[in-house]
From TrEMBL, chains A, B:
This is Histidine--tRNA ligase. Pfam families: HGTP_anticodon, tRNA-synt_His. L-histidine binds at D102, L103, T104, R132, Q146, D150, R296, Y300, Y301. Its EC number is 6.1.1.21. Homodimer.
């Protein structure tokens, strides 16, 4: 008996309409990546396990999909490992490859392996799927695309400025006005921990601070106390809890607060440069705001930290983020390569555009002209017309068989075709074709000798 | 100590230049898929194992990459299986998912699972990677892209006609003139086996016939004898061994040879319809030729069989192929869905275009304008210019730091930049910028107030 087919848990099929919408986003992102001088690379879907393992923490190691070795893979397992029946020990013996978990580690491997061909600073973008063995739930998938742009080999803050402009350019063209580009700097967080005398508790402090929006000042002070952060420190940090006003006003507060910390002051001056340069260049539709509670990927970032929030009124987590890191390639033995990068959250951007009805209407118009098929002779005349239309780049088709008119018109309707062409016996005799405009319902007759008259009207 | 990174066996990194060249091919193929009314779908990289296993024969099962279950996967293995230490039995217990082996089986699954949303005939294209655990060798990879277009739900021969036109359109636009679209029909092969009285030896017969080009008439008659095909049969089939002349002349020979076979005659009439319709429509640059030795995927195809050969003088196997199949979705319980499809062999097309120098020159020009960075103040003026250029869609960049002129010019050279912009102290005072044309070496000065003068000249 034939099996009932199913799709793997946590994965998705994409219908034509979904692929078109996803490509609409990718194409706009790519276009701007290119005008900003970024170049595409692609890396393989799977890597040798040692390239990936140990790079994402224990949880990451667990979530990496491992590929079983081919052939009689059990033969290579020694008796001791086999008898232990321990999955972790066994995995190392029966699996040598694993599916990519993100695009960052493969990029680092790429840079190290190709360092002699690359012209630094290297501006690369990469849009490829990644895989994670997470428990699937709403909005979380086991296969999803990441969309990253990074510059490595330059420590210039102009790169940070450029990424703010790039976010603005992409979201403006997507019609997503008013996104909030939040900006912070790891050095500011470190400086704060330093001046309040809690350098060792940097992570506890920022994790608590990060919850300011959710649990308020009382909530975070309580959490800080629980983590052993002193009353004196909490008091010293208090100006942060009610930081408000313009970016320049906030910078003034931070500058004062961090005046005794060298690192913190450096963070303030970096932040100031980015804010001032962007103010001088202007943004199209995005806002740029300082957010000292922003601490994403703290262990990883060393300078600027970015996060993009959807426009006000849209319930959605961040739709993009990134930051500067100082030692991407160190894990593979190439030192002192500073980098900064951002990513776009495709799936969330898709949901936001859908919610705000921002996809172009024509996106589901995969066919502009459908010729009705009235039989072999008429069909051949229609096929000649279709061939000419296609050569002019018009998406067109002939219904493949002389099915009932109703069935062919239903197909045209379902496929959202705006123009239906009729070449019946009479038209064939007169060497004409009739075009039915499906939107307004009228009909017009053209000569088969000069179809360009119709094409020009399209 | 840092590890030396490596790439998994049989996989490839693609550099910016390679990605651009691959996308050049994909974009042209996609453009024509769309004008022919095909719609894109995408399916997940991995499928449940039962969807893939048993669909490609024993060899295929062996070459499918299996993904290890997550967590403590050994716990679910019963003692008996574990003690047997048999890899095949074990695989079934510790792996539930596998990487896609081709795009055809996932497409069949898609059609069956989405049959109620699909408007038939369904014309879909799909361009995604597939994975095979083959031994890597020159030109054979463990990860490679397939590029397929299929129509399901129509048995009209117009689809075959359309695929011939589609091949012609794509290869013409790629500049690959004179490709040879070879055409055969499974029914003709079956008819031949019938009229020579060797119906049971259809596969042996066609496998031998397929070698005609390589081993000649003597070689194939010897092989046929060895396979137990009778002298009488070989004699009866002899007209095939020296089939020549125009398509119409060959059709006449076949028609006569197969006149007593119903199936064979049907094959001849199908072939005749395709050949005559194409003759009436005309092809741009491709040739369409009958090739009765063409037998690819014999177990699978039921009607037309296509294969595209590179233009004469290029040493390369087929660069495309396909055919009609009558029961794609039967394996998943959906009967009577006739389909026909073709594919493009991306990697080989890439090699042919490279060999014939057919990629556009501008493909490696990832940056049109580079501004030299002379310092903070000059840099800001340059950044403003770059921002304007980017808004106009010009791929442009500012060198991120005020490095030595020589270093910046070397970078411009390496990245193939045609225009280098200079804004030094003097230019900044005069509110101008200098454009150096890197190809002809001359310089021209423009006003920073009206950069559109330069843009219009681009």
């Amino acid at each position: 008996m034939a099996q009932k087919p199913s799709i793997a848990k946590g994965t998705r099929d994409f219908s034509p309409s979904e692929v078109n919408k996803r490509n609409y986003i990718f194409d706009i992102v790519k276009k701007h990546f290119k005008t900003y001088g970024f170049q595409p690379i692609e890396t393989p879907s799977f890597e040798n396990s040692e390239t990936l393992m140990g790079k994402y923490g224990d949880e990451g190691d667990r979530l990496i999909f491992k590929i079983l070795n081919s052939g009689d893979y059990l033969r290579k397992v020694d008796d001791k490992t086999y008898e232990s029946k321990d999955a972790t020990a066994m995995t190392a013996k029966i699996s040598e490859k694993a599916l990519r978990y993100d695009l960052t580690v493969p990029f680092a491997r790429y840079v190290v392996m190709h360092q002699n061909e690359i012209d630094f600073p290297f501006k690369r973008y990469q849009i490829q799927p990644v895989w994670r063995a997470d428990r699937p739930q709403k909005g979380r998938f086991r296969e999803f695309f990441q969309c990253d742009a990074d510059v490595v080999g330059s420590d210039s803050l102009l790169q940070e400025v450029e990424f703010v402009q790039l976010y603005d350019a992409v979201f403006t063209e997507l019609g997503l006005q008013g996104v909030n580009i939040k900006l912070n700097n790891r050095k500011i967080l470190a400086g704060i921990a330093e001046v309040i005398g809690e350098r060792d508790k940097l992570i506890d402090f920022t994790v608590a601070l990060d919850k300011l929006d959710k649990i308020g000042i009382d909530g975070i002070t309580k959490e800080m106390r629980e983590k052993g952060i002193s009353e004196k420190a909490i008091e010293a940090a208090a100006p942060l809890f009610s930081l408000s006003g313009s970016n320049l006003e906030q910078l003034a507060v931070l500058k004062d607060l961090l005046k005794d910390s060298e690192e913190g002051s450096k963070g303030v001056s970096e932040l100031t440069f980015i804010i001032e340069t962007i103010a001088s260049l202007g943004l199209q539709t995005a806002k740029l705001t300082i957010d000292v509670t922003l601490a994403r990927g703290l262990n990883y970032y060393t300078g600027a930290i970015f996060e993009v929030g959807a426009p006000e009124g849209v319930q959605m987590g961040s739709i993009g983020g990134g930051g500067r890191y100082d030692d991407l390639t160190g894990i593979f033995g190439m030192k002192n390569v500073s980098g900064v990068g951002i990513s776009f959250g495709l799936d969330r951007i898709y949901l936001v555009l859908e919610e705000l009805n921002l996809f172009p209407e024509a996106i589901d118009q995969s066919l502009e002209v459908l010729c009705v098929n009235f039989g072999e002779k008429e069909g051949l005349a229609a096929l000649k017309l279709v061939s000419r239309l296609r050569k002019m780049g018009v998406k067109s088709d002939l219904y493949p068989s002389a099915a009932k008119m109703q069935k062919q018109m239903k197909y045209a309707n379902n496929r959202n075709v705006p123009y239906v062409v009729l070449i019946g016996e009479e038209e064939l005799e007169n060497n004409t074709f009739v075009v039915k405009n499906m939107l307004i319902g009228d009909q017009k007759t053209y000569s088969l000798n000069s179809p360009e008259e119709f094409i020009n009207e399209l």
